[in-house]
Structure prediction request, 228 residues.
Amino acid sequence: MSFVLYDLLYLQDSVFLLLYFVIYTEIGGCMSLRLHKKGLRVLGFAESFVKEASRSVLTGVVMRGDQFLIDGFGMTTLTVGGMDATEGVLRLFRQLNRTDINILMMNGCIISWYNVIDLEEVFTTLEIPLVCITYEESEGLEKYFKDNFEDWEKRIEIYKKNGPRDEIKLHTGHLVYTRVHGMEPKETQIILDRFILQGAVPEPLRVARLLARALLKSEFSEFTVSTI
Prediction:
């Protein structure tokens, strides 16, 4: 084989690999997350409630991976002890009207007094990778559903549908427990470590939780929670 022919074949292979990378990046797979992209955006969801109230506050904070810049936020309300958490997450996302969110983070999937988020429904509807994070070991919540709700079967169905949790050790040394859709374990580890400054709570979730608590205590929240 001549050197000219060899060079042409090598160039052809290189172009093919480049095209494959571009296509793979656009349609899905590990590369599509672009984990080290400077402007990677995470939307973190967190809530705050008091059992005596009829409504809770759910907030979403958009945070960029470069310098933890807050790039947007929104809020909605949920029924305390209800079954509208999934609907609330989707509603809040749509209210933000964003097309640049790369990853969703949830501060737990059972919120507002056993209001269960259907993680699979959120993922399949929005087609954005998501990670749901909790911070303690658990033997399960079936007993509490049965003891407190007539519709306990539906709640347990969604709870079991969300699947088991995987343990991850963070760069801070803390352990978290995750349920993930659309990401591999290594990708999840990279994302969490990138967005955690200290402790176990990623910054988008920490800020969203602070915002939810502040709104719940505010005069605005007193009006909203009592009337919506």
